[in-house]
Amino acid sequence: MEHKTMAEHRTKPIEEFLYRDLHPQVFMGTASDRYAGWVGQIYSSHRYGGKISARSKTLGGKVFREEVLPVESVQQFFEHFSILEMDFTFYRPLLDKNSEPTTNYRVLQTYRKYLRANDRVILKVPQLVFAQKVRRGNTFVENPDYLNADIFTRQFYEPACAILGDCISGFIFEQEYQPKRERTSLDEYADMVDTFIRKIPRDDRYHMEIRTESLLSPAYFHVLEKHGIGQVLSHWTWLPTLRKQFAKNHGRFLNSGRQCVIRLMTPLGMRYEEAYAKAYPFNRMIEGMMTPGMIEDTVELMNRGIEHGVGMNVVINNRAGGNAPMIARRISERFLQPD
Predict the structure, then answer these.
(1) Distance between CA 156 and CA 166 in Å, rounded?
(2) Within 13 Å and on the Cβ side, how many CA atoms surround 46?
(3) Rounded to an integer, what distance in angstroms lies between the CA atom of residue 295 and that of residue 142?
(4) Which residue of 62, 186, 248, 264 could cross-link 320, Cys pair, CB 3.0 to 4.6 Å?
(5) pLDDT tens, residue by residue, 178-236
(6) Which residues, 6 or more positions from 235, have their beta carbon under 8 angstroms from its beta carbon?
(7) What domains appear along the chain, each with residue ranges and CATH number?
(8) pLDDT score recorded for residue 7
(9) pTM
């Protein structure tokens, strides 16, 4: 009877989508927030039912109607999760080239009004800084500001720190997938990253996500280790499994702040557009969508990090299986299972 009571004590919060107290070194969260599909799970209909707005998103020639809650709902988000990845910062800097605030600057200011002292966010660095190519209309073109340290520092890092301060738990630099014909040599790529890091402010909150498997080379990992930059372990379309990514680095945690970021983005082998269409409207799990082994790999890495005294930040996207809060539940249940 006592064993049953303890088990119920551990699982009841999970049933109610409460993930803040899984473990002192585990920070469970999501990629973005405010999804109306999470009403009844994370958000209360009586609080936000009349405040839902809509916007259109076109993918693969199909128009989707996205329903979103107001920014103030982040207060309820943090009743359930302990980390939030703000990925809207990926699409434009906080200041323009004339040092004028952009719309993202104002959105971040609005978020700040609702964050408590112990709420933590991860910010995605604008693609303008770390993407070799950026979208222009229906095509991708060379980015003239690729690895521009001054743009990162003045137009993003400094204003972000001024607005959010210690609420920032991490910065993610995401390098888009590079087709073989467009890749630089491994040593040249590592040198470029090294030069960029040496020019930006020193900070132990940096993490890099490389979406081209061949670029995950010893030379690249040497650069990360030298500067204390974390390897983002990303469950994404064309990358190998999480365990294989970690093994490429010989199972080391490189971030000098003793933090690691795991991002569960899309099923392996499934493109963004297909994953989005399958998961929409993000209010339920989709049978057969989630990659087998993703949960097990995530929990294994969580436990490895805990053994090494590393904080494990698990960021979940709806596109990884249909509904991020329910994926978090499956991870948490597996994590809390007795050995």
Answers:
(1) 15
(2) 0
(3) 36
(4) 264
(5) 998 888 899 999 999 999 999 999 999 999 999 999 999 999 999 999 999 999 999 99
(6) 241, 242, 262, 263, 264, 265, 266, 268, 291, 294, 297, 298, 320
(7) 2-35+69-336 (3.20.20.410)
(8) 43
(9) 0.95
